[in-house]
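Structure (tokenized):
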């Protein structure tokens, strides 16, 4: 993915926002949590062998790794940025930012960008830090590094572009008409061809990366609640992409797909989830807040199947790989479900702490990162 971008002038915009944890734990205090669904024995119909593991230090829930080619780029909560070889699990390089981080790492394979809790955007490479600059608002979404630019989606829902060589601010597109509450959770910031895509409230918004001009907006959900918490419909990562189609989840509201070549919404379905989705040639997959895993037809949004096998287990966003839909849980397990009917195909264990964000592929290696900082790699047989 490449974005060829030239400089443009932008006006800085600062907006005070009230932060809200994605799990909304405060809203459920005092009520007893449902017991996690018990795990039944599994016959491994899709065998996988653990080929390596390493530790990187405790990881915040927002510290989603970035994958580029055969390398993964990870950051821990303390401010270490590490490049790891996906085949061997060996560290390639490590840079200390020197401050706790508020967002995960973004990388183009050479450069890596993170944001500190002090609102500093920091760009590093294997030899060390290149530059850092102060941001006007907090950031919970990993920066996007592409086309010698660094793009940032801030908690005030503004999008800003920086020159990767100098750190100069190129442009800022301020959000309009958004709600005062925002999720303390990673949002959507990605690219399709020469178009920059960002989740702004319940809309997928396409930007011209040259100057920040908005090309189109595709609404996946509209705030309809009676209070500010219920009105939260921010798009959450990850998204599922097949060609020019991008499918995404609007927090606690809907799942839907957008034709990015036209900027049109193809379908939406009501869905009460807090984590992103995956997609393949036929279906879109997601997990609801209660742990129900659901598959929808990618062309129409019609529900294909739903599984309650993992209810109340703190299920992560899914990964579509091979025959399986793979999700992590809060007890450190990876569960491999059949794409066809959600039958359990295998279960893999880690260090017992929660899987962060969700599993992912680096080449042909299945990788998961835990809250305690364990990084585990498996090779399907």
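Design, position by position:
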């Amino acid at each position: 993915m490449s974005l060829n971008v030239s400089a443009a002038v932008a006006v800085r915009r600062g907006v005070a926002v009230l932060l809200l944890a994605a799990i909304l734990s405060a809203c459920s205090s005092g009520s007893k949590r449902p017991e996690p669904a018990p795990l039944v024995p599994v016959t491994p119909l899709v065998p996988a062998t653990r080929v390596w593991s390493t530790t990187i230090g405790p990881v915040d829930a927002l510290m989603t790794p970035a994958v580029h080619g055969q390398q993964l780029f990870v950051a821990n909560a303390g401010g270490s940025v590490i490049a790891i070889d996906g085949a061997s699990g060996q560290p390639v390089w490590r840079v200390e930012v020197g401050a706790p981080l508020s967002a995960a790492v973004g990388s183009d394979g050479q450069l890596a960008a993170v944001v500190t809790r002090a609102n500093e955007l920091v760009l590093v490479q294997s030899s060390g830090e290149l530059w850092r600059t102060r941001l006007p608002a907090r950031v919970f979404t990993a920066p996007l590094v592409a086309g010698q630019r660094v793009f940032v989606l801030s908690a005030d829902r503004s999008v800003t572009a920086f020159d990767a060589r100098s750190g100069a601010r190129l442009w800022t597109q301020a959000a309009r008409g958004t709600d005062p509450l925002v999720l303390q959770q990673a949002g959507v910031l990605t690219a399709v061809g020469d178009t920059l895509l960002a989740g702004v409230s319940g809309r997928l918004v396409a930007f011209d990366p040259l100057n920040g001009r908005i090309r189109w907006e595709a609404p996946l959900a509209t705030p309809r609640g009676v209070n500010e918490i219920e009105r939260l419909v921010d798009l959450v990562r990850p998204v599922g992409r097949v060609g020019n189609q991008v499918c995404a989840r609007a927090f606690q509201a809907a799942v839907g797909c957008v034709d990015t070549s036209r900027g049109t919404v193809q379908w939406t379905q009501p869905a009460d989830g807090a984590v992103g989705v995956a997609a393949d040639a036929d279906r879109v997959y997601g997990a609801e807040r209660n742990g129900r895993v659901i598959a929808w037809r990618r062309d129409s949004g019609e529900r294909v199947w739903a599984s309650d096998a993992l209810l109340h287990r703190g299920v992560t966003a899914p990964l579509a790989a091979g025959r399986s839909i793979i999700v992590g849980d809060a007890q450190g397990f990876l569960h491999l479900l059949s794409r066809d009917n959600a039958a359990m195909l295998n279960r893999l264990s880690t260090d017992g702490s929660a899987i962060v964000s969700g599993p992912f592929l680096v080449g042909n290696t299945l990788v998961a990162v835990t809250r305690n900082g364990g990084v585990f790699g498996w090779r399907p047989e």
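Reviewer-requested clarification: The CA atoms of residues 183 and 293 lie 22 Å apart. The first strand starts at residue 18 and ends at 21.
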